[in-house]
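ping. complex inputs:
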Amino acid sequence: MKAAILACMLLSIAAGGLYFLTTSGAGSEHGGWVGGMIHPSSAHFESPHFGHSVEHAGTKHEAAGFFGQDAHKLMYYVSAAVGLIGILIAAILHGPKGWQGLFLGNRVIAEKSRADSLIPLFGPFTKIARNKWYVDEIYDALIVKPLYVLSHIFHLIDQYIVDGIVNLFGAIPRWIGKALRPTQSGEIHGYAMGMAGGLAVLLVLVFVLTR
Amino acid sequence: MELFALILLPLLFALGVAFLPAAQSRMVALVGMLVTFALTIIIASRFDTGSAAKYQFAKSVEWLPDLGLNLSVGIDSISLLLVLLTGLLGPICILASWTSITERVKTFHVWMLVLQAAMLGVFCARDLILFYVCFEFTLVPMYILISLYGSTNRKRAAVKFFLYTFTGSVIALAGLVYIANHHAGLPGRNWTFDINTLATTARGMSTSEQGWILLALMAGFAVKVPLFPLHTWLPLAHTEAPTAGSVVLAGVLLKLGTYAIYRFVLPFAPQAVIEYAPLLAVLCIIGIIYGGLVCWVQTDIKKLVAYSSVAHLGFCMLGMFALNHTGIAGSITYMINHGLSTGALFLLIGMIYERYHTRNMKELGGLGAKMPIWSTFMVFFAMASVGLPGLNGFVSEFMCMLGTFQSSSAWGSSNLWGSLSDVRPVGVTHGNLGPWFAIVAGTGVIIAAMYLLYMVGMIVWGKLREPAGHGAHGAHGAAGNHGHHQGEQHVAVLTTDLNTREIITLAPLAALCFLLGIYPTPILNIIEAPVQQTTTMIEMERKSIALTRPMPRQGSREGSSEGSHGMRAGEHDGNHAGQEHPSPVTTPEEAHK
Amino acid sequence: MIDRLSFLWPEVALFITTCAVMVVGLSRSVSTRKLTAWIAGAGLLVALYLSMATTPSTSQGICPLSGKVFSDAVSAKSGQLFLPDMVPYAKCLIAIIGLLLLPLMSGTVDRLEEAAIERGVRKYDALRMNRAEFYAFFLFSLTGLMLCAGADDLIWLFLALELTSLPTYIMVAISTSRNQSREAGVKYFFLGAMGAAIFLFGFALIYGGTGSTNFNEIAAYFHERGINAIALLGIMMAILGLGFKIAAVPMHFYTPDVYQGGASQVSAFLAFVPKTAGFLGLLLICGTFGWNYSSSAEDATGALNSGLSSVGETILQSPWGSHLPEPVRLMLWVIAALTMTVGNVLAILQSSVKRTLAYSSIAHSGYMLVGVIAGPGDGSFTQNGVSAVLFYLASYGVMNVGAFAALASLERRERSGGDVRELDSMDDIRGLCSTHPIAGWTLVVCSLSLLGLPPLVGFFGKLPLFTSAINAGEIVLVVVLGLNSAIAAFYYLRLAFLPLIEAPAEASDAHSERTTVAPFQGRSLAGLLSAGGVVTLAIFAGGLMRETTKAAKVVKPADVSSQVEQEAAIPASTIIEASAPGAFSAPRHYPRLPHD
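pong. complex structure:
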């Protein structure tokens, strides 16, 4: 019942909106007062082709449509009709006996309604429908959980890999230092060897590299 | 003179705090910050918005002529906005730390004032080395603030912050010196570090040189922004810093990096930026999504907001690298807005921390019942941070995304949208980004909502959860730093909900967030001229790249860079000289010809 | 004769002061003995005045010590003249830093002796007193350093270098009564002798290769005939030998042990004096061949050989180049890079402040070597690596003195007894800013300046190194320099912020030692002056930069090719004698090389 009313309202709103959007008010070429707002904005389509086709549709509004009716007006009526039919079906299926069901709304609890007899007709769909089509659960499993896992993975990556690389850069001087530390042994012999050896290595290096 | 006064005033007050007794420190510091803020307001009021792109209040004192180093200062509208932001956050930080800093109070306030001076110096500097000096010098007070007044892991955070930023800055210095050297090598030029002069000649560097410069400068500035993957210092530093430290770190110090990129990377290496914009934009987007997702799984509120800074500044830089008017304007507004909203978030977290001594979301919950005022502010600023339309975050986020969306030379070619290939909206610009970048970045907005609403939901709503030991009447606000409480007097017990002082710290930020959300026009107007200049320069550089290199097939129509802010009349680009582009369709019949 | 002496007045003044010091220091009366340092200070002041006022610059073409006056033709032909105006600047710098070091030295030696004499435990015994010798050696070393600056001859340079170093060996050995300083002194002596042998061998080879020991003549020879293989080998050995003085890799091994063994004040002395001597010598030697060589084959079409280095061929100058000869450049490059890295990397691991400062001293030598490689450029400050080196020497001297002074002005005393030792470990400097603010803040300011943090003078010392090196095209070296500055931040942060941020280690009474101020105000004074100098030099660096630019003024080579075509012979005839011919006035005859 509520579902039906909701459907009806939505469709009516849509229809009404469409009406307002598409009526050509005075002074705006296309689209009424909402269109009037859109015009100066940057979402302006300048492609001549598109403008052309829209314009085409606009000028030929009256010509298009079904059975000589304006497509928009038709939408109008169709949506209203669908809404009303929906209300009627809902009242029949879920309302209590009698015509009070149409007006008393949720003051009447339908523990058992005529719709129950229709359940076997629809089979498993009833259960799915009762559980909101499992939209929440699917959403949770498809999007929320993976994102959650992904977030944790990113967190770990951030903590260990990205930060790890940074810390690595910080650790490299320390390692080189530790490697070079034994050269400062305190013994003069070692130092003298280092000096003489370094001298020799440098001279050889330079002479070789500049050959 | 005014700008020199602006920089020296906090220093004078710092000296004052240093020599006056510790009991007066807070008051003197507050007065100092308020006076500085008042001065910024005066400067702002005397700013000529008509020539917003010109560097006003410019003054140059010769200092080291042998090095071409002068103390040159000057602000244009963008610097002005950041100066105002810095000035605003100064007294707010002092007020916020009124009760939380109980030991070594003098030191705290001295270094806060020095930090203020250094930050103002960065924004006002028109000499490269003066900029660098102030840029580097912000490290010392920040290090001291974090390592003296921070939480448990403060030593490591401070050292990491210092070393990381210092290393990057030294490499940036090499880049800056190279630029000056290039300038001096040109015929008839002297050595100078003046930014105005260098900006004109630096563009003449070859593209490969500019590429290296880009690398060097980004090494320094991208660390500060922070851009993925150079962001790992941020969560640590933010979490461990004291409240005022976090506020100033998030509010202003991160903007040093973004400001530097705008001021130096874009003018000095435009061709390289144009070339590498997609790569940089990818890094930004990774920052947005990665940073956002990592936020979601944090249990420490401060770390959550810290990572959110990574995500937000990813947006900011994305707009910057869109290299069009909307994008860059969005980026600059983002800098301001992020400073306001994230600064406020840190203030709020600090207030919680003072009362409950924990930042763990698992221990705190449902505080909305106990602290309605705090909760109001929390939700408000969280919404501002998320980018709820009506608040300031939305304006800048939208502009950044719009700029990115528009920034693609592929608009109008069949590469982009397949059958919609004939669609070429007005407002698109040349560039290498485009709708896909914006779409992916847009998911970042959703992720932002995810984690911020999650955080707000956990803390503000739900069942009331308080950490053990903090009963119904609120906590003692005695310790801002985890030091020893030997013998110092207990500060008065904090009220359960926010007291007047705390509300005063938040109110201006809230007001600004609201005002800038519904009426951002003053800011957008004031920054239009300099952003226009930058965009024009970038477009010129784009054209010169196009001229010197064979263009890839760009499609049947080349976009001209008309944006929604009324730019110059449609220009012809190199390949399609002479072809007039249709102006916005006024009547369908004309366009159909 | 007087003309030649005019270059030597500062040294003469110092020598007279030394004699006075040696006499006064051995006096029996305490009050007279106490005047020793003051007399030394007076002497330094006189020397400072004489350096500024009376030392002529050699831009008039006068050769400092030999008295030779060169005509413009020869000066021009010698290519880039070796820093004609450096002498006054260098001597002033030495005198000023000497004055800064002097108060630092107070109370270094004879402390226990004097205390014993005062108490009446001992009687005055001249043989046990070291004060006279200590100050005498101090002044001798500075004299030698000034002589280095004015050297125009290889032998003179060698003698000056030895005069600079030998006293330092003894100063280290007697600086404290611990065994460590004696060990340090011995190590220093042996390794110094080895270093001296290496550079003397190099000098000998240069003589062999060029036939002269006079810098001007060597320069003229190199200019005309290029650097032959023997001279090149000599140059490289000389540079490496000088590397010992500046603590460059591979001659750096002695540095940490010696700095740690000697007293802090003497380490401060060592960090400045031999380093300056080494760099002055390096600049003088590099000045003989100059920075006019091209480092690539691009100038091969010139009248001269492009200067491409093939050792075996002669290396000749190119008027289009702006580098050192390639072998020398390469060697200095490798040494610079290694020195910086080794110094910084080993400093990170230290837990002793003095050793850290020793390694930092090695690293700073590396930075200055970058300036030597960069060369004078076109002479303006930003392009002039030589002036960058001279500026850095000044700023480094000041900051370093400050850092060591902070250590020297305090001592650790046992709570129970009177055993006194120096501050050395990192624990000792914790919380210094709160317990002893003067020393603490001096250490903080000087450490941050050594790090190169703006706006202190260390940054303005590094900046011209950056600019001149980039101008010379040494981008890789600049990046290495930058990265090393960043690595240095690791340990300078500790040095700077342990005093500032940490709580003093002895907060608990369980600690057996405490830090007290050493009873020598001079040391704190030296620290204060240094810290003040660090800050004011940053603000008023302009004057110093002008002075160094003047000092590093470059004499451009005249049109080289035409000159060389004209003269096939040695320009002995153009050497004009200034006065009575002495031993050096005989015209030289250069041996012809086989492939000429």
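DSSP finds nine helices and no strands in chain A.
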